[in-house]
Structure formats: structure tokens, C-alpha cells
Amino acid sequence: MEMTSLKSFRVKLVFSRTLYSQSVASVTMGSLAAYLRSLGLQTDLCLFDKNSLHNTETILGDNTQGNIVIAKPNFKDFQSMIPLLERMKRVGSVQRVFFCGPFAKLNAKDLMSRMAWLDGIFMDQLEASAARLLSTMTEDCTSWDFLSHGVISRNLKTRTVEDHRPLADPVPLSDLPFPARDIEMEENVSFVNIEASRGCLFDCSFCHIPLMSEMPSKASQLNVRDPVLVVNEIEQLNREMGKTLFIFNDSCFWSTKKDDSRILRFCDEITRRNLDVRFYVYLKGEPFAGDEVVRELAKAGLVRVFLGVENSVKSTLATYRKKVRSDLYEVVKAKLDPLGVNVHIGYITVEPHSSLDDVLSNVEYLYHIGKLFRLGVILELVRVIPGTSLHRQLLKEDLMPSKLGYDELTYGYRFVHEEVGCLLREWKKMLECQLKCVTYGFEYYSTTGELLRVLVERLDQKFTFLLRDRYEAFNQKKLHGMNTLLEYLRTSIESARIGKASLASDIDHNRHFISEFTQITNDLAVLYRGIVSLIRQNGGERAVREVYTG
């Protein structure tokens, strides 16, 4: 697609950070920026930070006229981003505002109904849909093709919202230019986000990915990138920006045996070019990738696998539509440990049907596999996303109202067992409000300490011996912390059984736990710093730069 003439307006691509353990940049918005620039459009990538006073400056710069915003609000930060964009639109600092991304698409009807200032929402592949619409935009931004495919637009003449006309011809991932890396150029880290495919073949009840498919045949097909091109981008980012760790955002890097040849070609390209890089991928749990694929991935640089274990309770796994064996983590860990690959689990402890016994089962399972330090997966309830099978199930069971808006729906359900909801609220008061930095610190040092060991031992086997005593002390302290947490969580579950969930957040009642857990986290921080210092003193700076610094 080519623009009929060079446009004078600027397109501002606004997004928030999604995960703190990854780059702040959005691969999606970087890809859109590169594609629009290839068509001759002036485009700026704008990182929205909800804790910053400089978002207006970031978005507008010195240009307060002729701006079109394409924003990607997410499920966590929309309440900060949207009001600012509305104000910019109403005072004329920006002429047009369009939304994109999962939050916008899946709440499109409600957003367009309630926000008369919003001009439209991109529903299909972002690059192709945005390019089509912008090619029809007038110089003064007062008109465009309101029936453009892949987007729902507000017709400025009738003020009605036009129907969605699906995009029939998304751009193959291999035909898109490499994402623009403006944001990453400013990051002082060695890791970067990347993608080799889009879409998912599966249908977990809580997940938005199948609903976001950009292929005409929907979930039955992925938009896959030529593995040679993937390695070309890795090589370029490594050579030009010094990036050494690549975090694949693909929802499932390997899905079925049909992917074997593509993945093996990817591995072969990295090995053939002698690229000294590391990478993380998301892998399907069952069936798990074959031994040859896993072995070649590790040889090429795989150091971490994200694995969707999700829960220990059979009824909850059925609700999630997750068909996984009860010992999935243990089986996969046994395969990956000898290859020097860390396993990081996806886990959702609590959902609307959970009982106290279910919660206890999950707490004890996380302790059993050595992951009870992952407090975030205990405190973060399952998110309900409109259009998912979980959403439909909760509506059918009358566990949530049918007319909740975009700003109420995510956690707008009630619990079958009310005492579970009460307990979670009290846990949040204690662990997120009272202990906040302590809770975060314990999870951060535990998680990062595990990963750093894998990275530095992959760098040089000498660190296995050098760090042995340090890690023995570190792991003992981490275990002490998990034992302390287990006692607190078990005790508060039993309190909830007798209607005293509030004891879980009572400061006087938990004074010993607060003091002990705080001391353990401080000790862990000191031990972690000692490990980092020893690594640096012995030439392991690269591994330190490959982990998130908190």
C-alpha cells in the first residue's frame, strides 16, 4: 500500500509498559511505527508512564496541531491514559484519537458508546487497518473513509458508529519491516522484546489471544514470520544496539509438531551464524515440545521457558480449559534443568469458583514446587475479558451482571464462596499495602536470583563453582521465607474458615510475621547483592545486564 500523497499530520503512537520484567517498549506499536514510516507517514512512539508528570510533553512535544493519536490502553493503566487523551482532544491539542489493542477491541462497543470524543477503534491487524484508514485521512484531519476495513469509526457527518467491516487481507508477518526501536535505543538494558508469530491455536477460557487473531480463518491459523527474518532481526539488534537477550512475545513459540521444522530452522540459523545470544519463549505444556526441538533451542541460546501450569485443582483447570497433567511442572523441569534452562510458570490461583480448600491446595502446590515466592500469582485474581468463554460461563451462572462497562468488568464478578473473596482482600491489605516493597522485594530477589544463576553459568561454567556457597546460602534464605509465608497463608485460611478473615491483615495479630518476613527479605537482598558483586568481579557483567534490575 502506498500513500497517494505525503501527509503533513503526525501520528502519535501511545502505549504503556505491560510487564516490568521485559522491555518498556511495545513490539506491536514498534511494528506499526515502522510500517507507517515505510509508507511515508511521520510517526512518533510515545511511552505513557502513569507515574510521570511528563506524559503531555511525551505525546505532544512541541507540536500542538495536526496530531493523530493511536493509543493502546491496557487493562491496568487505561484509567490513567484515557482521561489525558480526552482532555487533549477536547482542547484541540490532538485532532483525532483512535484506540487499538486487546482492551480496546474487546470493549469496543462500550467505549465508543460512552466516549463521544473517541474517533474509532482498530479491530483487525493493526498495521494494515491503520494504513488503510490513514491513507484516506484529509490533510486537516476532518474526514476519512468512515467505512475503512478493519476499524470501527465514528462518522463525523452522522455521529453514528459505523459497523465493523473485517479486514480480508492482513499483511503477512514476513512482509512487515522490522519494528522501530526508538524506545529501546534509550533503555540501558541488554534485553529486548521480539516476535516470531502472532495468534494462538488454543482456547484457554481466560485468554484474549484467540479473540485477537488477525488471520481471516481466525484461531485455526497463525501469522508466522520466516525464521531467517527473525534471526536477521536478532543479528541486527545484537550488532547495532548490543542486545544479547531476546524475549519472544509469541503466545506459544511452539504449538504442534508442524512447528518443528520452523523452530529447527531458527535454531540452525543462530548456530550457523555463531550468534552468542540468549532468549526466552512461551511453550505449550501438553504436549510439550519434543526432545530434539528443546535440545536445539537450548543449544541456540534458550535460557528460560514460560510454562502455563495455571492451577493445581482439577475443577479449576476444567474452568480454564487447560488440559495439563498434574505433574507438568516437575516433568518439564526435569527435561530443562540438565540443559540449563529456567522454568517460569504462569499461574492463576483464584477464580470465582475457588473454595478455601482450593486456595490452600494451590498455596501448598506452589510451596511444593519451590515457587511460593511468586506472591503476585496469589494476589492477582483471574481477569475476566469480554468475549472469552470464562466471561460467558460467569454470565450463564449469574456470577456477574450482564451490563458491566469496560471500567467494571475485569473483576466485576462475585465469588461462589464469599469467604474466598474476603480472604483475598485481607491478603492484599497485608501483602500489597502494609508490606508492599517487602513483598515485591522477596519475589524480585527470588525470581531474579534463579534466573541470574542460569544466565551466568551459561556464560561461563566457572561460575558454577564460584557461586556454589553463595547460592546455597541464598536458597536457604529463600526457603526460610517460603516457610514463613506458608505458615502465614495457612493460618489465615483457617481464620477465614471460622469467619475471621480480617485477622489476615491485622497488624498486631501478625506482628511476628511482619517482622520476620521483612528481615528475611532484607537478608535476601544482601545475599543477592553479594552474588551480583562476585559475578561482576569475575567478568560476568553481561549476565547482570540481562536481568531486570527492579
TrEMBL record:
It comes from the Bacteria. This is Radical SAM core domain-containing protein. Keywords: Iron, Iron-sulfur, Metal-binding, S-adenosyl-L-methionine. Residues 186-419 form the Radical SAM core domain. The keyword Hydrolase does not apply. Transmembrane segments: none annotated. GO terms for cellular component: cytosol. It comes from Candidatus Zambryskibacteria bacterium CG10_big_fil_rev_8_21_14_0_10_42_12. PANTHER family: ANAEROBIC MAGNESIUM-PROTOPORPHYRIN IX MONOMETHYL ESTER CYCLASE-RELATED, BLL1977 PROTEIN. One of its GO terms (molecular function) is catalytic activity. Its cofactor is [4Fe-4S] cluster. The lineage of its organism: Bacteria, Candidatus Zambryskiibacteriota.
